[in-house]
């Protein structure tokens, strides 16, 4: 069964990041007592077009890393580097060929909980055909 490109990439990313040994959550954020650090697969945007019965385009996932220890920025940075490396290794899924384009990333303070957090965000561009 064919899948939508963004769903196929979502599944590939989830397995690739879990293979790194990280806890990965999607759809909803994890329960309150979930241990840090963890990864959350957030929004996935897709732009596509069809040309001669072939679909091509780009998928833009948002990958989040959260840690509750402000003294371990290096851990967040290392996790993000490992995730970016895993992204760069994705070249083929069941129905699509992938080429990684630009990859934006940042680490920002997060005060959305009672305890301040480090919040890493990775925004890769995956082109598919």
Structure description:
- The protein has 129 residues and is an alpha+beta fold.
- The protein is 24% helix and 43% strand.
- The protein has two helices and five strands; from the N terminus they run αβββαββ.
- The protein starts with a helix and ends with a strand.
The total count of helices amounts to 2
- Average predicted confidence as pLDDT: 95
Report the end-to-end length measured between terminal Cα atoms: 17 Å
Largest sheet: 5 strands, mixed
Q: Helicity, in percent?
A: 10-25%
Rg value: 16 Å
Name the strands of the widest sheet in spatial order: 1-2-3-5-4
Structural class: alpha+beta
**Topology as H/E string?**
HEEEHEE
Global geometry: elongated
The overall strand count is: 5
Low-confidence stretches: none
Strand content: 35-45%
Please summarize what this structure is.
By secondary structure, the protein is α+β, with helices and mostly antiparallel strands. The protein has two helices and five strands.
Topology:
Blueprint: H1 5-19, E1 24-26, E2 38-51, E3 54-67, H2 73-88, E4 98-110, E5 117-128
Parallel strand pairs: 1-2
Antiparallel strand pairs: 2-3, 3-5, 4-5
């Amino acid at each position: 069964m064919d899948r939508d490109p963004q769903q196929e990439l979502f599944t590939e990313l989830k397995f690739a990041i879990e293979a790194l040994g990280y806890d990965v959550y999607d759809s909803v954020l994890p329960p309150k007592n979930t241990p840090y650090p963890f990864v959350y697969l957030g929004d996935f945007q897709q732009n596509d077009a069809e040309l001669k019965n072939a679909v091509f385009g780009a998928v833009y996932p948002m990958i989040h890393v959260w840690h509750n220890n402000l003294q371990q920025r290096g851990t967040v940075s290392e996790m993000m580097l490992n995730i970016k490396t895993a992204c760069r290794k994705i070249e083929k899924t069941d129905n699509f060929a992938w080429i990684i384009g630009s990859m934006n990333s940042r680490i920002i303070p997060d005060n959305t909980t009672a305890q301040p957090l480090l919040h890493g965000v990775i925004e890769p561009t995956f082109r598919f055909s």
